[in-house]
Design a protein that fits this description.
The structure holds two protein chains of two kinds.
Chain A lengths: L2 H10 L7 H13 L3 H22 L2 H14 L21 H27 L4 H21 L4 H18 L2 H23 L5 H15 L3 H17 L1
Helix pairs in contact in A: 2-9, 2-10, 3-4, 4-7, 5-6, 5-7, 6-8, 7-8, 8-9, 8-10, 9-10
Chain B lengths: L2 H25 L2 H20 L7 H20 L20 H20 L2 H12 L4 H8 L3 H22 L1
Classes of the chains: A mainly alpha, B mainly alpha.
Keywords (chain A): Membrane, Transmembrane, Transmembrane helix
Protein name (chain A): DUF5667 domain-containing protein
GO molecular function (chain B): DNA binding; sigma factor activity
């Protein structure tokens, strides 16, 4: 390769650019967080712990994916409080609805884990385990549709468990779980739309909505959770 | 948004792509590049908030980014490899699949070769050819004479060519 040709090709590397949604969300996270060093240290510590634990059980790649997700979600637990946004127009669930949703979330988690274990130990029984997860996911979808206020209660948990489904899921299961993510993301977008946001937070919400419109529901949900975390820590 | 935030927000917008690209070309992983770049700007924002005197923000950001990339390899004790599963988007208007495949193969080869060039040469090549920084500016930023920077760019290109021949 001649020098000029090499230089031309080098210049084409200028086209490497970060993901647009990451650029916006990262900016919000940096500028809107109160104590960045502490938050990062916390995220890294917990993510590292989870990665180590999961690495023993699952494939390495899966463990990394879970740890990356944990980095996004650590600190988001506070979001699940219903006074999170403190704005009018945000859906608020009754205590009974929250208890029912939590109970169903536990069933969903349990069935998802069972599916992951069954797929490893007893491939014949996988279809039954898949059916159980589908039923639990459908149940949760119905609960949110009936009482949108519980969406926030469910969001973090289903995100934590989606990796089980990603690894083991059949096309039919993916469609069912996708419907669940769609319902949760839709409701959380509605809540955020009813909230006073800064310019950059609004920009992040627009990106989440764009992901939702492109039917990338899990990505949309992750963006929403990250945005909610930034709002919460503000 | 307060004035400090507004000012840093502009700095972020101005440099985020450049710093991400600089880090990505060193670590060859989208996830790692995003993580390091976030930490670079977090550190810069903390310094900015404290009112720390930053004479040259660009030099400051590149310095932190370079150090963090080095730390990454020290901690992980691993060499740079080009990840095929997490390559950031290369925006290209060529629609022909064959053309794009050839382009991607070429780009992957260049990225891999660049990642294996000695760090100081890698830096000047990125700044000069990807960020269009004149040698005088690189000299100012690195505290080296302009003549030395020119020699480093030349040597860096030679190393890159040798590396590409070796890989071919």
């Amino acid at each position: 390769m001649q020098e000029q040709e090499l230089i031309t090709k080098l210049k084409e590397l200028k086209n490497i650019s970060p993901r647009k949604e990451w650029v916006i969300l990262s900016k919000i996270q940096i500028l809107d967080s109160r104590n960045h060093a502490e938050i990062y240290a916390q995220k890294r510590g917990i993510a590292a712990g989870l990665q180590g634990l999961l690495g023993m059980v699952f494939q390495r790649k899966f463990a990394y994916a879970y740890a990356a997700l944990a980095i996004l979600l650590v600190g988001s637990v506070g979001i699940m409080q219903f006074d999170l946004l403190g704005n009018q127009g945000v859906q608020v669930a009754s205590q009974a609805a929250i208890i029912e949703a939590k109970s169903n979330v536990e069933v969903f988690k349990e069935k998802s884990k069972e599916l992951a274990i069954t797929a490893k130990s007893d491939p014949v029984a996988v279809s039954l385990a898949v059916d159980n997860v589908k039923a639990a996911a459908k149940q949760l979808t119905e609960i949110i549709k009936k009482d949108p206020g519980v969406a926030k209660e469910i969001a973090l948990e289903i995100n934590n468990n989606k990796t089980y489904l990603d690894v083991q899921g059949s096309a039919e299961l993916k469609a069912t779980s996708n419907d669940l993510y769609k319902t949760v993301a839709e409701q959380m977008i509605k809540d955020l739309e009813a909230t006073s946001l800064t310019e950059s937070q609004q920009e992040a919400l627009d990106i989440a909505k764009e992901l939702y419109d492109k039917e990338r529901y899990t990505d949309a949900l992750e963006s929403i959770l990250l945005l909610s975390m930034a709002i919460k820590s503000n | 948004m307060d004035t400090h935030k507004e000012q840093f927000s502009l700095i972020y917008d101005q440099y985020i792509d450049k710093i991400y690209r600089f880090v990505y070309l060193k670590v060859s992983s989208q996830e790692t590049a995003e993580d390091i770049t976030s930490r670079v700007f977090t550190k810069a924002w903390e310094a900015y908030q404290k009112g720390q005197a930053i004479e040259n923000m660009r030099a400051f950001l590149y310095k932190i980014a370079g150090n963090m990339a080095i730390d990454h390899y020290r901690q992980k004790d691993r060499k740079a490899t080009v990840s095929t599963e997490s390559v950031p988007q290369l925006i290209d208007d060529r629609t022909n699949i064959h053309d794009r495949a050839v382009l991607n193969a070429d780009m992957d080869a260049i990225k891999a070769a660049l990642a294996s060039v000695k760090q100081e040469y890698q830096d000047v090549i990125i700044w000069h050819y990807l960020e269009d920084m004149p040698t005088e500016e690189i000299a100012q930023m690195t505290g080296r004479p302009a003549g030395t920077v020119r020699v480093m760019i030349h040597r860096g290109l030679e190393m890159l060519k040798d590396q590409l021949i070796e890989e071919a």
